[in-house]
Hints:
The chain is of the alpha+beta class. It is about 40% helix and about 30% strand. It has helices spanning about 5-25, 30-45, 90-100, and strands spanning about 50, 55-60, 60-65, 70-75, 75-80, 105-110, 120-125. A 5-stranded mixed β-sheet has the order 1-4-5-6-7, sandwiched between helices. A two-stranded antiparallel sheet has the order 2-3.
Amino acid sequence: MSELLFKDEVYAINGAMFEVYKTLGPGFLEPVYQEALAIEFVSKGIPFEREKPLELYYKDVLLEKKYVPDFVCFGEIILELKVLPKLTNIELAQLLNYLKITKMRLGLLANFGSTHHLEWKRYVL
Length: 125
C-alpha cells in the first residue's frame, strides 16, 4: 500500500481549516475565511503564499490572463477555498487546471459554505 502524498502537510492544513470553521462557522464570504486561514497558517508555522498568480502559456507564448489560487502551501500544495452549498465539478475543474498549470501533484478543495461541517477533498494528479 502506498503512502499518502504530503500526509503530514495536509494534516496540518486541515487542522488550520477546521480551527477556522470551528471558530467562525458558516455564513461568511470567502475572503473572510481566506484571511482567517492565513492568520491560522502563521500561528501554526505553515508556509504559504496567498493569491499567487499563476502564469499561463499557449504554444510557449505567455498569456496576459493569470489564474490565482487562494493558497499555495509548503510550496507544493494548492488550496482553493469555496463558500457554496455543495462542491461541484466546476470547482474541481478549477483546481485541476491549477495543478496542470503548476505541474504540482496535490490540490485541496475546501468548502466553508456547508452548514453542517467543513467539506474538503484531496486531489492528486
